[in-house]
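Amino Acid Chain and Its Fold in Token Form
===========================================
Purpose: to set a sequence beside its fold so the mapping can be learned.
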Amino acid sequence: MLSSPEPNDMEAWVQAAYSNSLQVQIAKANLDLSGKEVERSRFAHYPTIDAVGTANYLNQNNSQLGYGQALTTLAIGVQLNLPIYQGGALSSKVREAIANKSKSEEDFENARRTVAQNVRQSFLAVNTGLAEIEALKQAVASNRLSVDASKLGQEVGVRTQVDVLNAQQLLYSAQRDLARAYYAAILAQIRLKQAVGRLTPVDLDNVNRLLRPTP
């Protein structure tokens, strides 16, 4: 059954979209990655010190004397790596990483704005659609009564067949508009839940039941 969004607070849905939207999460992950790439590029200028170690094992056999000798050599130390000047290549990589981060920041903000706009539009469409559905239900009921009255009037001679056909046309138009309103509200509800990452198979099953023709 169609119902108002819960909670019925537009900005609460926007905040939920900021946290759960797949589009926003992907943009945020790209932004974090670009920030780490800037740090990595800057650290490429710095000297590094590594701990190094080696172990050698040598087994020597003296066939003449009839004995062998095993020799193990261990070495532990530190190694200083100092990047040499590369004609501005390192600086260029840093600038490129910073530019990529700036683009990622723009993409992240664009993703947030797009998601917020979609959520607000879908939220309003759901509530507007529900109000329209109620109004069209009344219009259908009223036009159905008008058809019955026209048929009764035709039987007693105060209405013509044209009057009946006109009343039926108005009823069919109201029923068509009601079906369209249902479809728009259902679609808006799906889009709203999808935007905040809350669309589930249960929601789709409910939609299938709503779209199933009434016997």
